[in-house]
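Input/output pair, single chain:
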Amino acid sequence: MKVILGGLAQPATSLANNTGTWRNYIPVFLQKTCTGCTICAIVCPEGCVYSVEKKKFTFDAKYCKGCGMCAAECPVDDIEMVMEEK
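Output:
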């Protein structure tokens, strides 16, 4: 991993690793009150939240760490974090 000036690491480092295998929670996009603001995709530290059509988002389970940033920042609470069944 390349270290950037100031000691910051590059984002989206999980693209080289499938980090989705160790999470406990997954986001559930309710699709009820979504305004299409894209904040969920913007704040995702791994860039695994994406739009499948207007006002409809999903995530790539291969890379999602289950951090909950998307749910925490959704201004209309349209994303819930639920325990993943394994």
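The chain is about 10% helix and 25% strand. The longest helix spans residues 39-43.
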